[in-house]
Specification:
- The protein is mostly beta strands.
- Helices cover 5% and strands 46% of the residues.
- The protein contains one helix and 36 strands.
- The protein is globular.
């Protein structure tokens, strides 16, 4: 089990990262093979010596692309409808779930090799012509170098190597579940595929297929199965209305909630930690439950710990820090940082004003996205986005946006 040591462990890794960065900078000072030419829609290319991390934010009518360091807008694509976004897995593209299927957004960073030198450029972000047909685009999962798309309308699962997106539409492998449902699928490093089980009315569990798509394991002890997360040692977790299912070392085990109805529908994993962060709802009759407890589940022992935040949160509030810290954006406006091993609150960082979860889940509400050592928090009430240094608990940047933000994601560039 990982225990967060907020002082020496953080400083040690930070020093390692700084040392690596210094070494890279030293190597590039006399060799233009690592030079990066950057450009924005309104500026000529200029040389820099770093990657170009980007953020993508949806709004009613389109998608904004921001420089993740300055929070300045570097691109905008108009797109009608209610759209959802996820990283594609190659640190350049974003998968957009639209009304008509999955589309691919290029955030603008790309690379090109010239002889012995690799030059990296940025171009204007834009929606590409790459698309994946889907009746009801659903979950997007990235793991072990594969990106998996799930179509709720047909039960069709499409898997591809995201690094091939720069060459155009990638070659996909497909599989269709026996019955269409609102589900999710995960492909493991050895080609095994895990999918949810269900139909239009109910969802009951998961099934595991080998690389040849022959069933090797299943469990139907997960009413209302929803969401997934990958933990250490390629352990995969799925939420249930009464706990979790854990697939580990070829076996499926059930973790039961302490309440008869203890729904864990959204999870955040960290692939170096055995502990999975999840939401936790315990009122089966609530039209809109505003929970104040989160769940921390040790996938090696099956121990499920509940942590009372003292404030509510929503499904867009969960994230993991660079050391596996459990991060929750509360309706009190603070970012809560929790040690996943003990459940102890490391710090609370005030970021935005207190807010109330809207009645409709599609309505904009503050959202959390984590990239590296930075947590990004949107504030639809003020049309702003904030950057928070997770290590020192400080808001380091704030930007006013031209539209009201909804979902947020990003790429490292």
């Amino acid at each position: 089990m990982i225990r967060i040591d907020p002082t020496p462990r953080r400083l040690t890794l930070a020093a390692s990262v700084a040392t690596c960065a210094a070494l890279l900078a030293g190597c590039s000072s006399t060799d233009d093979s690592t030079a990066i030419e950057t450009a924005t829609p309104s500026a000529k290319p200029s040389q820099v010596r770093a990657a170009t991390p980007r953020l993508a934010l949806t709004y009613d009518g389109g998608i904004l692309v921001l420089d993740a360091e300055t929070l300045s807008v570097v691109g905008e694509s108009e797109l009608d409808g209610f759209n959802r976004i996820n990283p594609a897995g190659d640190e350049r593209h974003v998968i957009v779930s639209t009304e008509d299927g999955f589309r691919v957004l290029d955030t603008g960073t790309w690379s090109e090799a010239h002889g012995d030198h690799a030059h990296h450029y940025t171009a204007a972000p834009a929606l590409t012509d790459i698309a994946f047909d889907a009746d009801k685009p659903g979950h997007v999962v990235r793991h072990a170098g594969r990106t998996v798309l799930f179509d709720d309308g047909t039960g069709r699962v499409a898997s591809f190597d995201p690094t091939t997106l720069e060459d155009g539409a990638p070659r996909t492998s497909t599989f269709t579940t026996p019955v269409a449902h609102h589900g999710v699928a995960v492909e493991l490093a050895d080609g095994r595929l895990i999918t949810t089980l269900g139909d239009e009315k109910t969802r009951t569990g998961i099934v595991v297929y080998d690389a040849a798509r022959t069933e090797i394991a299943r469990s139907e002890q997960c009413p209302g199965v929803h969401g997934e997360a990958v933990a250490a040692d390629e352990t995969v977790v799925f939420g249930c209305q009464d706990g979790l299912l854990i697939y580990r070392d070829g076996a499926i085990t059930k973790v039961t909630s302490p309440d008869p109805y203890g729904r864990i529908g959204n999870q955040a994993g960290f692939e170096d930690s055995p502990v999975v962060l999840g939401d936790y709802k315990s009122d089966p009759d609530a039209e809109l439950e505003r929970p104040q407890r989160v769940s921390l589940t040790d996938t090696t022992t099956g121990e499920l710990r509940l942590v009372d935040l003292g404030t509510s949160y929503t499904f867009r509030s969960l994230g993991r820090g660079p050391f596996g810290e459990a991060l929750i954006l509360g309706t009190d406006g603070a970012l809560h940082v929790i040690d996943p091993a003990t459940g102890a609150v490391i710090r609370r960082v005030p970021v935005i004003d207190p807010w109330t979860e809207p009645e409709q889940w599609q309505s904009p509400r503050p959202a959390l996205f984590v990239q590296g050592f930075t947590a990004y928090v949107t504030d639809p009430a003020t049309d702003r986005v904030h950057a928070v240094d997770i290590e020192n608990g400080q808001v380091t940047a704030t930007a006013k946006l031209p539209h009201t933000p909804d979902e947020i994601t990003g790429v490292r560039g």
